[in-house]
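Handout, tutorial session.
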Amino acid sequence: MHIQLGEIEIVVTHKAIKHVHLSVHPPLGRVTLVAPTDTCIDVVRAYAISKLGWIREQQIKLRNQAREMPRQFIEGESHYLWGHRYLLSIVEQDVKPSVTLDHRCIRLQVRPGSNQSKCAEVIHNWHKELLHQVIPVFIRHWEERLSVKVAAYFLQHMKTRWGSCNPRKGHIRLNTELVKKPKHLLEYVIVHEMIHLIEPTHNDSFITILDEHYPHWREVRVELNALPLTAEEWQVND
């Protein structure tokens, strides 16, 4: 169901929840509204109208948000790791490609004549190695806190969300782009997806669990949304 308020289109769904949830999603300001099952459309429309000022304010913030340029993998280019900026140094040697971190420099070693695609592949694989070093630590900590078990996690370069969960299989999936963000933002996404093992939907029960175990999640989500977007269009899974 859709509501059109001037230039603003709002996607409306009804769920078994107690309160209305209105969200403005990055990167372009898509608006969704989730209402309790028995809420009539006139009440939903009236609520949305009362929030028009807030919706427009959030959309302006998102549209003004910084956006990263596509990486070309050239000498001296800026790259981000765990929220910090590094300069790329490229070394061509006829040995197995590798990546090392040296103070504020990411040293990419590739074979002579390697193209941009090959450099991107080497960096991407390195990113996954770094994530594999950190994610299991977070998962073990939160398995104990939440009394849940993650059967498996997967890394994927996803275009539309930071994470996802398959509650039936006990699997969570995480976006490899999270390696560029501060580690506490990665932890937030992990906690969010692990709570879906308890409550699959974003209902009041889900919010209650999140409030109890990760009370500052709203501030962290704002921080994640406020960071520069990549050249592609990402969306927080909220």
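The second record follows below. Compare its token runs with those of the first.
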Amino acid sequence: MALADGHLPVLPLGADKRPLGNCRACADLACGGRPNMKTPGSCTCLWPCHGWAAATTNPSVLTSRQWGMAWRKARAIGYHPGGAGVTVVDLDNADAVAWARTALPPTTRVETTRGEHWIYSGTVRSVNGVRPGVDIKSLMSYARWLGPRTGTMANVPAAVHTLVEEKPVARPAARAVTVPAPAGGGRCPHRSPVYLERGIAMAEQRITGAESGVHNTVYRTFLAVLSAHGRCGCLTETHIGRLFAAAQAKGETARHCATAWANATTALGM
């Protein structure tokens, strides 16, 4: 609660440092919350209840009955760096730390079990493996809270921007989303195109109406659309294009849209 009061969006992590689910359906991440889960996602939550997008500073959410189940199991506290306006350069070993000391300007730091987190003011795209032992955690990612930090925080340096931009982004294929047919050979649950059209229109309105937290709104909207419409094969590239266009009209780049879409499909096990 102290971290949330300090405007740091937090979330519960398990002993394996992965986010815990905050509802009964996702309590054991049976919904596909773990990237390595092989079973299709089963989460039907309207909004994500775990992972970076669920990180919040809202005290009523943090102390709610649903989140209480996760906090009782939590072994660590995570936070969303992008939501706090910072970027974490995760240095995973001594060689990575040595590289940072020669290539990056000094900034706020905290020791980890294997290396250090260097924390800069400002946000960038999150990318793992930008070089050996170095991950960038900022937008659409989470980091573990490791206690008091030392040093004065500097702005994100040009070297970090360069590392991020040099890493290619996976983009969704220009085709309809193909997923398994409904179990038992059942027909499409939408029954008519009207249901899908209404869902896409509502999603566009949700993105267009966002007055703050556009990154989070875009991701959560993509996740909601895929949860409701992504498993029967009805979602086409035209629908996806409409969502991307709405996001870009709010200032999102095509790259951020592609990243948010890829993260949403991964979170759902699709």
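Points raised in discussion: The two ends are 34 Å apart (CA to CA).
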